[in-house]
């Protein structure tokens, strides 16, 4: 058997050390806003508030400090950070530094410590506000319209809603971006996605809670109810992460909101609840879901699940960054080559909100760069990309 193709050369990793770059802006502009919003929303005491301030100073000026040996994930981070601790934050790869920053946010908020803040989701006020917002109510009502569409049109509408739902990511909106309108697809391989769904296992790697999760759950319901999938494994974060990333608690909160509504939303929510009872829908968490690493470094048990799936659907920008190892690939580098290590068919449904992009044709890449050099981080474009083992031969 021939070996999978791999990119002809490794692209440079995205790092934090270039002033005014997107990673630099995240650490110097977005993170201070985020911490201010957290402290406005959650009544943390002085010890926690001081810990947040110290983390912000460290992440902009000092060396990366390791976790305390008492941390429940100390051993994991000793492996994940063995070459990073003691170096400046600016020297780090962006994927690693941003992931560790969010892990340290939980520490600053007392999430793992004994005491009153143990297990408290510091992002919960933002998540709950989104569930109660008029936009979420409008999305619930929009499911009635989708339900009335003809089968093929409804299927494509659900897929597109899942793609663009990532634009409602709370980290993006906190940074001042708004999900008022969707843009255009820079790559669309949706015609390759549907034939891969053969009634077997589909793994959906979730991204954000709230409006995006609602869109994802509507798509999952369609896959199960229409026989596209016999079972769905929904891979979620085991703990709060990246502001709005979905945990099992967020799924249950979203289902509660759906079943309390009227019309199609209530029907979808009820069917998904029953699917959970019947084990046709399984919520799954894994420590690697919060790892600062690309999927190239996934552990064996996760690799086995992806290999057993008829299709793995990777949602959102962060999962795309992890698929592509968060490197500055030339945008025409084939998606199948960048994901050659992946053990089974994979589809990426992503609103583009960071620098890494692959799989574009040369004309599209040139037109986008000429029209707006910031298009990679503005959320104005999205991709649907598919790769299978056959593509990598």
Automatic annotation (TrEMBL):
- Tell me which residues make up the Damage-control phosphatase ARMT1-like metal-binding domain: 27-365
Q: Where are the transmembrane segments?
A: none
| Cofactors, names only | Mn(2+)
Q: Where does the signal sequence lie?
A: none
Q: List the catalysed reactions.
A: beta-D-fructose 6-phosphate = dihydroxyacetone + D-glyceraldehyde 3-phosphate; beta-D-fructose 1-phosphate + H2O = D-fructose + phosphate
UniProt entry keywords in alphabetical sequence: Hydrolase, Manganese, Metal-binding
Its name, as the record gives it, is Damage-control phosphatase ARMT1 family protein
Q: Which organism is it from?
A: Nonomuraea rosea
């Amino acid at each position: 058997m021939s070996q999978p193709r791999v990119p002809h050369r490794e692209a440079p990793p995205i790092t934090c050390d270039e002033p005014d770059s997107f990673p630099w802006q995240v650490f110097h502009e977005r993170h201070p806003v985020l911490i201010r919003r957290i402290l406005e929303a959650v009544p943390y005491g002085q010890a926690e508030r001081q810990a947040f301030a110290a983390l912000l100073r460290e992440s902009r000026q000092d060396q990366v400090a390791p976790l305390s040996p008492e941390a429940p994930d100390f051993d994991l981070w000793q492996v994940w950070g063995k070459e990073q601790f003691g170096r400046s934050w600016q020297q780090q790869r962006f994927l690693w530094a941003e992931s560790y920053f969010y892990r340290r946010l939980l520490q600053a908020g007392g999430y793992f410590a004994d005491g009153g803040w143990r297990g408290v989701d510091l992002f919960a006020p933002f998540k709950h506000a989104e569930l109660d917002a008029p936009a979420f109510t409008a999305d619930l009502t929009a499911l009635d319209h989708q339900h009335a569409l003809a089968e093929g049109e409804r299927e494509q509408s659900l897929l597109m809603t899942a793609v663009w739902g990532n634009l409602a990511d709370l980290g993006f909106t906190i940074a001042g971006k708004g999900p008022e309108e969707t843009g255009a697809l820079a790559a669309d391989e949706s015609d390759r996605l549907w034939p891969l769904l053969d009634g077997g296992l589909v793994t959906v790697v979730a991204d954000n809670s709230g409006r995006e999760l609602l869109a994802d759950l509507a798509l999952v319901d369609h896959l199960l109810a229409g026989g596209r999938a016999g079972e769905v494994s929904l891979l979620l974060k085991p703990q709060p992460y990246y502001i709005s990333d979905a945990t099992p608690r967020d799924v249950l909160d979203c289902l509660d909101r759906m079943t309390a509504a009227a019309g199609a939303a209530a029907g979808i929510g009820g069917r998904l609840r029953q699917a959970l009872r019947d084990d046709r829908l399984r919520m799954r968490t894994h420590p690697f879901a919060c790892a600062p690493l690309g999927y190239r470094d996934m552990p064996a048990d996760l690799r086995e699940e992806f290999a057993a799936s008829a299709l793995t659907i990777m949602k959102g920008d962060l999962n795309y960054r992890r698929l592509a190892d968060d490197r500055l690939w030339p945008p025409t580098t084939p998606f199948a080559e960048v994901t050659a290590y992946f053990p089974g068919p994979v589809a990426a449904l992503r609103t583009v909100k960071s620098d890494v992009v692959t799989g574009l044709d040369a004309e599209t890449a040139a037109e986008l760069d000429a029209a707006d050099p910031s298009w990679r981080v503005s959320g104005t474009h999205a991709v649907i990309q598919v790769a299978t083992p056959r593509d990598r031969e």
